[in-house]
Design a protein that fits this description.
This protein has 16 helices and 23 strands. Strands 1, 2, 3, 4, 5, 6 and 18 form a 7-stranded mixed β-sheet that branches. With 478 residues, the protein is an alpha/beta fold. Helix 1 runs parallel beside helix 9, helix 3 crosses helix 4 and helix 3 packs parallel to helix 6. The N and C termini lie far apart (91 Å).
Length: 478
Amino acid sequence: MKSIKADIVIIGAGSGGLSLAAGAAQMGAHVVLFEGGAMGGDCLNTGCVPSKALLAVGKAAHNAQGKAHFGIHTTDTKIDFAAAKDYVDTVIGTIAPHDSVARFTSLGVTVISEFARFKTAHIVVSDSYEVSAKYIVIATGSTASVPPISGLDNVPYYTNETIFVARDKPDHLVIIGGGPIGIEMAQAHCRLGVKVTIVEALAVMARDDQELVSILKNQLIKEGVTIIEGAGVTKIYQTTDSATQNDENITVQLADGQILHASHLLVAVGRRPTLDRLDLDAAGIQYNRAGIITDKRLRANKKHIFAIGDVAGRQQFTHIAGYHAGIVIRNILFKLPAKIDDKAIPWVTYCDPELAHVGLTIEDAHAKYGADQIRVLSTPLSGNDRAIAESRTEGMVKVITHKKGHILGASILAPSAGEMILAWAVAITARQKIGTMASVIAPYPTYGDASKRAAGSFFTDKLFSPRMRHIVQLLMKF
């Protein structure tokens, strides 16, 4: 076994680990990076990148069907499902060199393509290496959760880690879970000609603004997705005679008595931190079901050990992993007590229209400040000229503010919500008041103008009040 001494050992080459490794190595630290799986982690190989590529294919198929109200008619749209998956592979392959062993080696990182585990709190080992380091960073990400449903172990099913490699088009895809992954995959497959049913034990997209979610659900249903809420799956089994069921030989039994017949299953009930193989107990690291227990500086109970990204027991987003990497760099390389600030963390579900959010939800704002201290501003896209021109009026901008004008949160349902939410993230981060957004000159016509209109509505009551009319009438006499 080869021994190495390093400044920083990073376990996991996903988004967070790679960001940290690249930054630290280029600033002069001796970095050893372990990755026993694919470089790029979940985001590149089974998450963000392939899902957005498949969504793009689905959107192209949807638009190719023509728009009669635009005067565009298409009668023969052919969808090659296997070729669509080939495109997903092409996208991954295009991005992969940026995350490759060769690139990181060129940056000065020692990359070891093996799984690592703790030997002690300062020593990490793999099959061939033993590495001691001053600092150790755990960046092993997360993996798909599989619920304890009776019979699930006896039938084939997909997770996000396996669905993108499948080349056969499903007849009927039943998706267990109505969160972001389930919603995105439902729309992508439906637009590619697959019959899709979502089964959600509670409520679809439960953490998002439910008024906007309702609009989104109506759009998905309009496109052909069946959504079943409030009924969990109790049992799954596979029949041997599929001829009478059009190859839908997987039976899904729901708690309310409904019976579904599926040709394929996708389990999308969330993700769990990847703690396997790490031997955390050997290093005395504290953890729980959510992941490594860390403080605001992302340090574990052993202060030279950090955890970033999904494994850190916080929000599970790729951009959060990158943000965590920056916090750890400041702590390790510059000895600054940098802490995470989660008041302006955006998230986006990349369906069409997109659903985005940043800051506090309405419920959180009420709980923190009291309902009487909160104002909710909203502007539907039905009044936005760009949305009208493109016939995309199914959406809304909703902003949560304190009655004194402090911006607390924003939710957007729009074709470009993921791009639009950035302005609100900046405003919240900079602690701007609503007047700043209201006074911005927005280019016309854009979806972004709906954000300005929502902000401006904060002042509507005062500007068009009887008192203001009286003041203006007095001033007009001079």
